[in-house]
Amino acid sequence: SWKKTLTMAIKKRSRVPGVMITQYVEQIPLGKSTPDFTRKPMATTVQEGKKALFKAMVNGDPEPTVTWERNKGEVNDEEMYKTRYDERAREHILEMPNVKPDQSDTYKCFATNEYGVAVCTVTLKVVEGKKDTQYCANEYVVVTRKKQLPPPKEGEIDPKLWELLLSAPKKDYEKICFDFGVTDFRWMLKRLKQLKKEREDEQAKVVEKVENVKQIEVKPNGKAEFSVDMTLWDPNSEINLYKDGKLVPYGCDENSKPCLMKTGTKYVFSIKDPQPEDAGFYQLDVEEANILSTEFQVPAVEFIAKIKDAKAVESEDAIFQCVLSTPLNRITWSIEENSLDDGDKYEITVSEDKLIHTLRVKNCEMKDNGKYYAIAGITTSSASLTVEGGPCFNFNVDVHLLLAVAQTVVTIKVAVFFLLVIYFSIYMLISECYKNEGVRFISGLSDTVANVGERAELSCKLSSDNSEGCWYKNGKLVKDGVTIIKDGSCHRLVIDCCKKDDAAVYRFEAEGRKSEATLKIEDPPKIDSDALGEFTKPVIIKAGENAEWKLPFSGGEPITIHWYKNDDELSAGLYVKIETSATESQLRLTKCQRKDGGEVKIKLKNEFGTIEATSQLIVLDKPTPPQGPVDIMESAVTSVEFKWKPPKDSGGCPITSYLIERQQVGRNKWTNLGEIPGSNPTYKDSDVDPGRRYCYRIRAKNTEGVSDYLQTEDIPAGVLRNSTKVVSAFKDCINLAWCAPCDTGGTKIVGYNLEKNKKGTNYWNTKYAVKDVFEGAAYEFRVSAINLSGAGDPSIPSETVIARDPMMRPKFKDRNMKSFIVVRSGNTVRLNIHFEASPMPDVFWLKDGLPVPKHVTITNSDKGSQLLIPTSERSDSGIYTIIVKNIVGQESFNVEIRVTDDPKPPGVVELEQNTPGTVTLIWTPSPDEKRDDRLHYTISKRDSFKRTWRTVADNLYNHKFTVVNILPGREYDFRVFAKNDMGLSAPCVSPFKVGISENKTMNMQSPPSFIVPLKMRTAPQGYECCMSCAVKGDPAPRVTWYCNNMSLNTNPNYYISNICGVCSLLILRVGQKDNGEYKVVIENQLGTAECSMTLNVRGISMVQQSYFLS
């Protein structure tokens, strides 16, 4: 792995959370860089048999090499793991075509070049195929009177999920299901609706109303709160709080933990100063009715980067962002005591790795000023938002309005002059506004962190390329020891090799504007590359000897040093000696044994960073005994051959040979047969007597010594090579097979003798047809070969076999079983379920999760089960579940049986309203509606033109419907039917006929009136002036203009127009004589109306006169 080539171990932070960079060298050449991830692979959950993909994008110079590893195995199998590089997307991909459960693991991705390595981890979770969702939904029934919920089972819905959904508003369903790993919750809504109705019925016994249920969340004041608005029927009702099924006492003052505060009908429960042990599943009960369920989670999470103060200009967006140490689906954002939700005003986003959380405040206003909080678990981070006012001048010109005014001018010359004057005035105002703005910062300085000896850079950008500026360090002008670069509008200060005294507050000033930032110098632990290379070499010793490691280091004090062996921290003791100074640490392990071998690691840590170095300890010892059992490969007349497994632990060095000893059964002497090579754990003994039994001892040998022995069982010589093998067994028959002997005695085998022995007896039966067996009895078998000279010795007895059918998990034989059955009330319900299982299973029937009633007859056999209800009633409706279970497993199936009858017709149909083009009907519900939740209504219509009935509405679950497309001049009849699973009821016919009268013509004449009246105006002398108003009336009114009660309609000095009711009066050049009251009089045959205004004429200034002359 990459650790073996490590020459330097300097840990660095990556901008991508969860990525660790290890730098090999102290100084990286200019233009080169260590590897890093631009996008790391994401954790994946894949169904078994599907394809899994990990994708990563890396950068670095030179181009890094990407490799993959996993914690519990290798990724070398090319069929299971395929690696490739997508040049178009620049992605390194690890593909697993057909994932299996054993591939669930933590995978590592390494990006390596000559200057370092970047590593990140990613988790793959493989789940089994989806189960029947209908079965899962019915697996649990929420029991409100039991505070302790059943523990969740693998592959099934957590009962806590149902409880939380019952107490949450619909907008939170998706978030709650996502926390429990449920991505498709639509199938749960029907079950949830049923549970919610049951919960509301139970709550109605003790509370009148329940509103505004809020789940638990941590507030900025440090308290965890959840609340509910409820009105109790009895104010003295007992209110209980449970945590994980246990009653929790609470107080009514703010110093209690937990505390109940009541304001009117609002009940607020709070936990003061919450701690990790306060996490749990909380339930609020009134008497025995559950009102609210909520889960308080306290994840082990910290803020790696907290939110920072933000500034924004009005109508711009402000952004708060934080980085967590542990992935979370969401955190809580709040301002003061109010939580913020994703919507039009606030946008809340989370990165793909769930580590970076962002809040965007859109279109900032002055009222958005304040303190904002990010709350993760019980950890809080806060920052302030400052909203500044916009530019000093905002002038908005409606060009279309100017053109509309200009069009009212008589001559084109006057219109052009009018536009030039307005645009010149706008230009002068805007120029005056921005003339004194000066240079400003496009981007200011940012706080920077650098390590001792590394390069640091501070930069800012101005709005002008020609501006010069000065750099200051702690208020003093910077001259020496730094490099100052100006690139257009960008100004940079560069420190090539940072020292501790370079830490300061730096400021850049230009034309009265300034920006400052803090440079922080850190000194993380460092290890010399030569010492690190020597440390990483494996330490090899013999058992009982001592092992020692030394490592010099440097860095800012204080440095904390920890030694680990196989990830377990070491502390000084009898066999562990640790000596540490300011520049070196030493570890000494005494009297090491074989089990002490493994990875030895040192971790150096100070306030600026952490560095690690790893070595290996290898302890050599004699091997462990060879592994059994011994397999007999051949047992001939003159030879015996057998094999065994190598030792589990070779002692750290290869097995050189095996030592073999033999003993004849019945004697005490052991004979040494010699040594055989360690590469092949097999031995053939050719010096045996036929019919005798032998026992062997086997020892393993390496360079460190000889192991203890492995002793075999008695091995007979001159019998069949293998014992009789049981192929299959049933309760009335057992099938056998065996192999021919290797030594036939020089003649042809003409047959076999097969013997049977009932377990526990000494009588061997030689019958061939093994059918006379008793069910449940255990048997052994042996066989002997026959040639022309007679029968040979019998074989080794076979393994014990029991005469019974092979075990089988219960399964249903009918593939097309009905899951929904409708039966007419009073008829017989007969439900036959066929299954097969071995041994005989136990059969259970449930109705809605409870045992079936006594009047239901259950008949079971080894082939199936029958449910019989002789005379069914409506109360027999429900979901019936059959559970078939034996020692191998269990299987279940759900059938919904609905007992109903022909529906009764609805009541009288009445006309609620009669508006043009529509008719609204209302009727009395059918008497069967309360007993049949699937009953609905159908409406049909017949008009006097077609004379046929046509359905206009179906599947109506209310008692009101509006019929549209009602044509005038026709008569209509209506019928309403009740409908359920059995069919339609008798119709209920409306006792009326709807007739729509013909449309009538309307008189549109009206007296004159003003839509837009005249407005008071002030006009400069010498300019034109236009006044206008809008009028209406039928017939069109006659318009007369008056000035000081004198008619102007015949005066040629005024231009009067009337276009589509917009009346205008234009004075081309206003003079003092035009001062006065202007009046408009409109009249037609139905009446008269008038409107007036006053025109004020003011003199022209000398500045304006000179401007027009120029």
UniProtKB/TrEMBL annotation:
Domain Fibronectin type-III: 625-722, 905-999
PROSITE patterns: FN3, IG_LIKE
Listed transmembrane segments: 401-430
A GO BP annotation: sarcomere organization
Annotated ranges, domain Ig-like: 35-125, 299-386, 437-520, 810-900, 1007-1096
Listed InterPro entries: FN3_dom, FN3_sf, Ig-like_dom, Ig-like_dom_sf, Ig-like_fold, Ig_I-set, Ig_sub, Ig_sub2
Superkingdom per UniProt: Eukaryota
Family matches, as CDD domains: FN3
Keywords assigned by UniProt, alphabetized: Cytoplasm, Immunoglobulin domain, Membrane, Repeat, Transmembrane, Transmembrane helix
A Pfam family it matches: I-set
GO CC terms of this entry: M band
Entry's localization field: Cytoplasm
Family note: Belongs to the immunoglobulin superfamily. MyBP family.
Protein name as annotated: Immunoglobulin like and fibronectin type III domain containing 1, tandem duplicate 2
Lineage, broadest ranks: Eukaryota, Metazoa, Chordata, Craniata, Vertebrata
